[in-house]
Every structure is written in C-alpha cells, then in structure tokens.
Amino acid sequence: MAAEEQERQSIRRELRQRLATAGERWLFVLRWVLFALACGAVLGVLGGVFAKLIDLAGAIRTAHPAFLLLLPVGAVAIHGYYRMIRADDSGTNLIISSVQAGEAVPLRLAPAIFLSTVFSHLCGASVGREGAALQLGGSVSSALGKLFRLRRDDHHVMVMCGMSAAFSAIFGTPMSAAVFSMEVVNVGIMHYAALLPCIVSSLTARAVARAVFGLPDAKYVVTSIPDLTLGTAAEAGIFGLFCGFACILYCSCLHHAEEGFQKRIASPFLRALLLGSVLLLLTFLSGSQTYNGTGASVIADAIFGVPLPWYDLLVKILFTSLSLAAGYKGGEIVPALFVGSCLGNLTGALFPACGRSLLAACGIGAAFCGVTNSPITALLICLDLFGLDGAPYYLLAVAVSYLASGYYGLYSTQRYASAKYHADFPESRDILK
Q: Apex CA 225: angle with CA 308 and CA 239, to 5°?
C-alpha cells in the first residue's frame, strides 16, 4: 500500500509540474502576443504617417522641380542634424547588430531617420524607404522593450517585431514583413522564436495603417503568366542568373562609391556638397525626375510590360550610389527593385515565352534576394505583390539569384550562419543538444 501511495504521489507531482510548465509557456505566449499587438499598433500609426509624408514629399518635388536645387545642400543639412543630436548614422547595419547582440537601439534614431528620409525624398535623392522603416521600427520597438522591462534575452525579439511592423505598415506586404526581420539577421538561420510575435505585429501594423490612413496593400498585376514548361522554366532560371550578377554590380557600386569618396574627401560636409551638386547636374542632363526618389512609377511600368530604355537600370545605380555616398537617407532596397524590374523588362524582349511583365515581377523577388540574401522573404514579397499564379517562376528566379549573387549583400553586419554552396548539416547528437 505504501508503495502504491508513493507512486500516486509521484504521478501527482509530475502532473502538477507538467501543468505548471504548460501554464508558464502559454503565459509566455500571451505576453508576447500583447507586446506584439502594442508594437504593431504604435508602428502602424508611425508607419502610416511616414508613408503619407514620403508620398507627399515626392508629389511636391514632382510638381515643383525647384526643390531639386536643394540636392547640393540637403545632405549637408542631414549630416549636421545627425551630428547635432549625436545619432549613429550607420543605418540598418546598426539595427542588425542590435538584434545579434540583444542590445538597445537609441530612441533618438527614430526622429532622425524619419525626418531625414522625408527630407531626402523632397530634395530628390535616389533612395528608398525600407532602410528607414527598419531603423524606425527597431528604434521604437527597442524603447517599448525598455518600457515593458523585457529581459536582455528577449530584447532582440522585440526589435524584430518592430522591424516587421514598420516594414508591413509602410510597404503593404505583411507576409514578407513578418519573415524578413527573422531571416535577414543571420543568413541560413531563421529565428523561429520570434515567429508569432513578428506575425502579430506585422498584421496589426498593416491593419492600423489601412484603417487609419487608408493605405492599401501593395498589389501589381502581371499581364501574362504562361503555363510552366521546360522552356519557360529555363528562361526564368537564366534570368535569375542575370539578376544575381546585377545584384553583385549594384552592391559593389554602392559600397565602393561610399568607401571611395570617404577616402578621397575626408570632410562629410564637403563630400555631401560635391556629390549633391553632381546629382543635380545629372538630373538636369537626364531631363526628368525618372531616377530621383524611389522610382515607383518606373517599377509599375516595367511590371505592366511597357518597354523601357536599356540604360535605366545603370543610371539608377549611379544615382543611388551617389545619393547614399553623399549622406542621404532612406534605403537601398527599393532602388534595387527598380534595377531588378528594369532588367526583367529588358530580358523579356529576349525571352518572349515569359515576356516582359512576368520577368519584371521575377526581377522584384530576385533582386530583393540578391541584395539581402533572404530567399524566403523574397518569394513572399512576390506572393504579396503578384499573387500565387506565377509562384513557380518567382521561386526559380529567387533560388538562382540567391546562388549567383554569392556572398555579396547590402549589410556588412549580416552574418553567414551556413554556406551557400554546400550543405552543412549538424550531427544528430548536436541537434538533440
């Protein structure tokens, strides 16, 4: 009897322990859902305001080209502003480093990147807005993490939530936004511990931006998607190869321009003044504002299948390299999508089976993957933007671009947790550990 009673007590203790463990886990999940909802709501509002102001700045500059005369002095003002408030200007690299180390991001970075990016678009710099979204999200969510008194080990999850929320609110691509912050930090590793919080914050931010500011989800229509055959698959794969090489060119130009001008012109103010003047001269010579700002209208034309000049992508690389080297803020990804869509539009004339529209859409995903080394996010961006019908083509182009782009990328702090060209599987005993 004593033995039976002892066994029953042991079973009760084990059951209580399991219930307690399960309760702690679900309490942990509930807590993170609440944190993610709060993060998504805050950044949905901030992201909505930011997106509206970016659009307004572009519309004002287009209607009043005299604002282009600010190009020589705009970057000088931005350098002065960052120095005055003592904000780190290393951009998205700082956010990635903070996630890797679990460290806080200064809150003063949020107004700095917010104002400087809007001002950059008003001046006519060839920049995007995704870098600003990631920095804005990382800075604000880091402050929220302090407010919620999160542990150091949990802080990096909160920063990823903020990155996802801001990206989703501003770009209107909630699926890809939820995954991007988990994938971009360490190539080859997906931080699944942040999966649910990032999804909740991304969807919440998108819903808030849509409800409060009327920002629609980003959608494009691919005019023609052929049935998948060996021939069309080969065309998509070859195009992915082209796009990977173009991404190497793009990243190399951006990095070499920034490093080269820093070595040759030590003063950031003089460098900003000279490069801004060159940008103004190039804009005058181009005769339009095609290469200023994000170039969203050109991307839309490329996807619609409108034939574009072959040199568009090269000129965009030049404008973006000079803008970022001068010190303008915003981001590098949207100009890369410009390059990818233009390359697809151009290649579509050589590969009529796929056509301009489909390859331009493939170029969006392939270019995103080539410059960020984030293939899952790249595929999801295509699905967010273009729907499921062309999924096999997007997948092929993204996969080939991932390999063809090698170990190049936009972010110097990005780590390669696994090699691209050979499978490095852990031993089963390591997995069990």
A: 55
